Amino acid sequence: MRAGIVVTGTEVLTGRVSDRNGPWIADRLLGLGVDVGRVVVVGDRPADLLAALGQLADDHDLLVTTGGLGPTADDLTAAVVAEHQGRAMVLDEALRSRITAIVDGVVAQRRHRPDPAALAAGTHKQAMVPDGAVVLAPVGTAPGLVVTPAPGRDGVPIVVLPGPPGELRGMWPDALAAAPVRAVLERASPLTQRTIRMWGSWEAELAVTLERIADRIEGLEVTTCLRDGELEVVTRYRPESADQYPTLQAAIETDFAATVFSVDGGSVDEVVAGALIDRGWRIATAESCTGGLLAGRLTARPGSSAYVAGGLVVYANEAKTTLAGVPAELITTHGAVSREVAEALAAGARAALGTELGVGITGIAGPDGGTRDKPVGTVHVAVSSPTGCRHRELHLPGDRDAVRQRTVVVALHEVRLLLTRS
Amino acid sequence: MRAGIVVTGTEVLTGRVSDRNGPWIADRLLGLGVDVGRVVVVGDRPADLLAALGQLADDHDLLVTTGGLGPTADDLTAAVVAEHQGRAMVLDEALRSRITAIVDGVVAQRRHRPDPAALAAGTHKQAMVPDGAVVLAPVGTAPGLVVTPAPGRDGVPIVVLPGPPGELRGMWPDALAAAPVRAVLERASPLTQRTIRMWGSWEAELAVTLERIADRIEGLEVTTCLRDGELEVVTRYRPESADQYPTLQAAIETDFAATVFSVDGGSVDEVVAGALIDRGWRIATAESCTGGLLAGRLTARPGSSAYVAGGLVVYANEAKTTLAGVPAELITTHGAVSREVAEALAAGARAALGTELGVGITGIAGPDGGTRDKPVGTVHVAVSSPTGCRHRELHLPGDRDAVRQRTVVVALHEVRLLLTRS
Known about the structure:
- Two copies of one chain form a homodimer.
- Chain A is an alpha/beta fold.
- Chain A has 16 helices and 17 strands.
- In chain A, strands 2-1-3-8-7-6 form a six-stranded mixed β-sheet, with helices on both faces. A five-stranded mixed β-sheet of chain A has the order 14-13-15-16-17. A four-stranded antiparallel β-sheet of chain A has the order 10-11-9-12, covered by helices on one side.
- The two termini of chain A are 48 Å apart.
- Strand 2 (35-42) of chain A pairs antiparallel with strand 2 of chain B, so a sheet runs across the interface.
């Protein structure tokens, strides 16, 4: 069983919005044993959407569309799916009443009261559905749909979901429960996905390991991906090949003993969180060039209040001194971007927040501020703790955003290494 | 002229990595007057990639692929593109020497020295190119390619680019300069894109405005998108319709005078930065539930050191008191998530960093911590300045990540409103 996904929206196609729905749906379908063949992004143009549906229907068993269900004229997914499946659009009166009640509820909460006629027109548009479709109850104002081909027509079921990720996710259980989707899921066989992560190894070396054991892992679909310096090995397999996976895992654990940091799919964030909880330690940050992104990432996990005390964003040099207690003469002598200042920031974060672990980051993210001695991409990361300290000087490629993001990942790994190796 | 984009990589298809290349390329092509029809994401499977190329070649004038040029066996884009265009794969000796030199340079900087034979095999693989292809010099280790159909074969030019965004972007100018690409670009006519942004209006009301002037803006392609509470109107047009755009802009500026905050495409970040610079003010933050994300976003812009002093991440209640000077009894009386504490945080940020403007954020991002009176999604945002203060209580839907991200956007708009209305 294979599904194809169509993401609609000129804002996604032209890069103004990055799509979060395609990956989310793909991940859910894979978990249900439904493979994903292709994801197609199209703009708000009927001909392109129609072409995408036609091409995907040829070699997939189920299609899922996202977006284009809003109240405006450029939201045309329902009508185009109806055309593809050979069905007329009809007004669903019960649905119209339901959407009206939802919109009235939202309006009541808002300071700005919109024109009722405008809202009524939008509601009418959103209540037009393909004849015979299964209607999925709105989470926002847009209903979802499951549309099968008209009687006597070839094709596959199409699940039509709204674009806002919260609405789409809220509607997903109902979509899976619809009879045409259940029929596809019943024919799917489970697909297991396993992930191993390494920090600091080369993709080319991994290729040698995979080559050596190739004839013993023929039933595994192995993909490798180097991202933010982490080398990720993701393997998918059907039940009949499950006994091959230990061969792969053992080979990687042996060949890359020094760099494997997760064999259960856990991210570096999860490894760090677990290690902090195990020790009963709390962490604090003092960030210059990353401007709070490390603290933001540390607090992204639910329950992080158990081990994150807080942090300092010391963007101006004065803040490094007043908030993190970095001596002004240290900055004058070594420069704000130096090992000495990074270490003082790490110690200052610990002192200011009263934690066992502190991270200090200072660097030149660019595009300006670089010098011959300290070009853009020069970053110092320091970690301080009662049982030891770590420091790393980085020379990172890429633009401002890339330097900042990569620095956060390096800092997390430095924390991980301190916690797991000392 | 229309281009199709193929993003390859099982890690993208299955949602482990979110694609940054497709949108970037689409934006660049649109700027050159080349429309983008569809973006297709495929995994590392030759049959799916071949199908995607075949389908896109039918109704596009140029194709661009990203990813699949690495040194491992699952990197197969070059070979599949060669097959599609009817060309053999050949070893490019000059390219092999060049990649070898690059790899040697990288190895010299690393602590961990990989197996030379493994690297040589990877280099050999990356130096295999379709016969007759234009080779684009590597930025990392992977070369780019421009591959035209073999003599006598139908088809369109295909630009083959590596997956790492920094490498892809570095190679882009060379790709545009390749003769087969230049020939397509010369036949493109300029396409202008203009953006208007609003904060707090309804998409359904906008639909009424667009409907009213529909017959005077027939040459404009207007798309609307509601995202993070911002309503975005993006319009694309060819030179012959340029005189219709002022009609659209005037209608929106009249009907939505209270909510339009940008008619030149500027983001709220840019509006805030400009307003701070105009006043000569600096900003500081004290964040609880957003954990540094607002500071991270404020410092994302180059040159932000001119107006961002820094911030406090006061995740633990103790940090709210010790760092931001929030009286402990205020927290006891009103709770950490309250208007009073948000306002004290805003004032505390100003005092700690010595700035004119301070932002305080406290809330319940979930999934735990909600109560009947203060459910998950309850957030207080306060802005403090010498000329006035603002406060807003939010009740946000969605998961932890959605609550945190939306809070950052609301906080930026509260800062904007304080700066532009007082």
